[in-house]
Structure formats: structure tokens, C-alpha cells
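Please predict the structure of the following assembly.
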Amino acid sequence: MSSDTRNSKGKQVGLIALAVGIVGIVIALFGFKQGWDTGEVRPMMSWLIALAFWLSIAIGMLFLVQIWYVFHARWPTIIRRQCEHFMAAFPYLLVLFLPLLAIPFLHENPGLLWKWMDGHNELPGHGTVAEDPLYVWKSPFLNIQFFVVRAIGIFIVFIGVATLLRKWSFDTDTTGDINNTHKARRLSSLGLFLTAIAMTLGSIDWFKSLEYHWFSTMYGVWFFSACIRAALASVVILTVILAFKGYLKGILKQAHRYDIACMMLAFTVFWAYISFSQYFLIYSANIPEETFWYNIREKNFDGGLNSWWWVSMGLIFGHFLTPFLLLLWYKTKVVIWRTVGVSIWILAFHLLDLYWNIIPGKLVTPDHGPGYIVRQFSVSIYDLSALVGIGGICIFAMCRSMKKAEPIPVRDPNILTSINYTE
Amino acid sequence: MSEKYGIIASFPDTPSFFHAAEKVRDAGYKNWDTYSSFPVHGMPEAQGQPRSKVPVFTFLGGITGFTVGLLMVWWMNAYDYPIIVRAQPFFSPVFPFPIMYELTILLAAFGTLGGMFITNLLPQHYNPLFNSDQFLEVSGDRLVIAIEARDAQYDVIATRQFLEEIGGTDIEEVSA
């Protein structure tokens, strides 16, 4: 395929993605506006979930690329370029994060989404946020100024590392300069730490602090495993599409897919290990400040099972057991449609995992009495439109980046090993 | 010296060795093997070997470990000597999980090791191929294909001719 046809095809896909993305975003923002006026937080959570979903894929790819550099991995060189293209979405994701950041500054209730942002917010049972000793104790970390500083820092790390890695990798295409690879490797050694810290802070700030009462030291690692799983599943889908319809035809081999699928198996186990460890530690310690987080994901205040119980079971059997058993099987890792099927399955349950982590919350009862109401599982049109909207923008960013560089890193020192890779 | 184990042939370089293996496979021989001092990528396919059966042993070992861990904790904590710990139930699938998990890994590893021994027919203290001085050089730089006499298609003259045709040199009959 000549580079002109490639570009026009990529441009076409990019423009469609942009159009679909804008439509999705407009619908989602309409819901956002309604929630803003009525003080209903659910449409903002739709936005947060969709942002988390696409951000997790980009962060996962950022990790993968750096891990591959640090370990001098040669086989994924042709896949690395596709990840670099997707990492172009980071600046767009920053812009798409701004509506959420506007809530503490522009809304009459700064704590509409993150309830600790307004000391006047009432807590279920009794008292307000400002009177809560746990909040007072955590307030040096959980305050709006520091939150904004952290958000800026987090995106500086993501965008900075991604931009440098992309720049050096694309530069190698024209100059063939081996120093680019050395520089990328050196940056990755440091960048892994920076990315890990930024990702941990991001997950704590944006998702965990929704229920600021809670303690968990596993949360950052949980998000890491979720990011890598999402990224690996997306890499499979993306490279297979490119191998069927685009420029990876004849380049992406069974061996590449097999190795990615092996990593999918490993991180399926890792995700389960981390998620279970978090549950197990809290179960063993049995401290109310920690157990409530799991209690509301199982039962209502009156002790009856709620919708989240089914989602929890769905995660255990759907997000761990099913992909685990399927990926144990050699055929799943080499037969294209089976690998793609498992990848789509994992992405769907990754989304459900984000729902499970973000939406449940303790709400004040209508009569402001003792007890609480649990915000139940629901899927709204705004969830879907935010997901499609933000995804469209990310895919547009990726297609735009694809025009800037060779389809595979043609002059990378490891390209030959990657192309000739066998199991 | 009446009993024969089979015929061995050497090959000058890896590509001819590899393609010769493909030809032996296509000729329909079943009881034969290739010998080299280093792994040759794609050789299992060139030899037409089915996929290894070791994963089955691994899986069975893992399942056994998981079940044993579960039953062990149930038997000890809930049946034989019920103990109250932290006001939690005598038995639940949650707290034995580390034990189930560890035993799954341990017995899966044992299964893998055992499966490897079983499918490789190990330990094997005697192999007639070592009767050939030529064959001993395989641990150096020799690349050898051996076709065994127990193969249905084996014929002293025809097989020797066949090995010559596919580029084999230093062809030798090995005694059992």
C-alpha cells in the first residue's frame, strides 16, 4: 500500500471518528449540563467513567512501551509504534478532563462529584464533611488547591513522557539515529517511576476519593493492573484490524499475537490477585472504616443484597475466571478471532470494573435520618455517549498521529528481530 | 549385531537439516527424530509433531492443588477442630484462598515437571544411538536425523537411499 492511500484511508477513519466523537460528546455534555443544573451527579460519573476507560488504555500503553524499552524487548517493536500512536490521545484527554475540574470552581456545590470538596456536604447518618475527623485528618492531602496541582502534575508526566518517547521514535524513522533508542531507554527507566506515581495519584484522586472515608493501599496497583489489561486487549484489537485492513498485513505474526495473549493471561491473574488481596486484607482486618466500601457493593443498609452484588459476582466470574480459563488454552492465544473475542470480553468487563469502582456511594436518606442509601448500578444514555464521544476523539488523535510517521519503526535497531519473530 | 536400532544421517548445515526434516515428515515416517546441540526454531512443525501434552498435566495438577487446599482448610477449620477466628465463619471460600492459590501453583509445577518426564519417556538410562561414535558429535557441531527400525515404513535399503536423496551424509546403521 502506498503511503498516499494509507494516509487518505487513515484520514477518512480519523474524520469519521472525530464526527462520531463530537456527536457523543455533545450528548454527554447535555447530560452533564442537566446534572449541573439539577445537582444530580450521575451524568458526571458517566463522564468520569468514560474518561477513566480511555485514559486507562492510554496509560497502559505508556507503561507497556516503557517496560519494553527498559527490558530491551525486541519482539514488540512493530506493536510499539501502534501504542505510540494511541499515546497521542493524552493532550485531548487533558482537555476532556477540564469539565470535571470545573465543578469545584464553577458549581455552587464544589463537592458535587467529589463530596469532600465542600465542607458543608451532609454525610449519611449525621454530621457534615467539615465535622468529619477523618476528613480533617486527610485534608492536608484532600483539598482543592492540592488536587488541582496534582492533576496538572499527573498530566504533565503523561503528556511529557509520551511526547518525548513519540518524538524520539518518530525521529529514528528519518535519521536512523541509534541515540534515540538509548535516550528513550534512559527516559523509560525514570519514566516508569514517574508514570507509576502519577497513575497512583490519579486513581486515588479521581476514583478512590469519591468515598474519601476509605483506606486501601492496593488501589494504585489495582488501577495499574486494570490499565495494562485494557491496553493489552486494545493492542490486540488494534493490531488485528491493522493486519486485516491496514499496513500490518503480513507483518503481524502469530508469534506476536501469542505473546500479547500470554501477557493478557498473566495480567488477568495479576488483576485477580490484586483485587482479591485488597478484599482479603480488609476482610481479615474487619475495620468499619474499610469494610463499608465492600459492604455497599454487596448489601443495602437493611442487609438485603443490592444490584452491586450481581456486578461483583460478574467481575469474579466474568473479569477473572472466564478469560483466565479461556486464555489458558493455547488455541485462544493463536486463533485470531478467539483472541479478539477474549479482548473484547476483557474490555467490556474492564468497563464494568470501572462502574463498580466509581458509582457506588453512600447517600443521605430522604428524611436525613440514620442509615444510608446506596447508589445503585445503572446504565444511562450518557454513559454510552460519553464513552463513544471520548473514544472517538482518542481514535481521531491516533489516526492523526498515524500520518506523521512510518507504519512501523523502519530504522529501529530491533525492527528486523521483531519482523522475523517466531514462537 | 543382528538387531538394528535404525539409520542415522548427518546434514552439513541448519537449512538443509531443517528441509530434510520436512521431507522425512512428508515421506510419512513416524518413528524418527532430529538431533542438534542447539534449538532450531520451527523444528517441531517441520517434524510434524503435535502440540505438547504437558499443559494437560499442568492443568490437572493445578485443579488437584486447588481442591486439596479447599478441602484441607474445610477439614481442619470447620470439621475436625472447628475454630472461631475473628468472629468469622468456620468456613468460607474467602480465607482459604491463599492456601488454595499456593497449592494450585505448587501442584501445577509438580504436574508440569512430572508431565515433562512422562511425555519425554524419562528417565532413560540407555539409548542405542550412543553406540554410534558419529552420533556423539551431536553435542558438538553435528546435525543428525535418525529413522528408527520400528517404523512401519523402515527398510534398510530404501530408507538409506531416501536419506541420501534428501542430502544426508555419513549414513550409518546403528545397532540396538
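The radius of gyration of chain B is 25 Å. Residues 54-119 of chain B form one domain.
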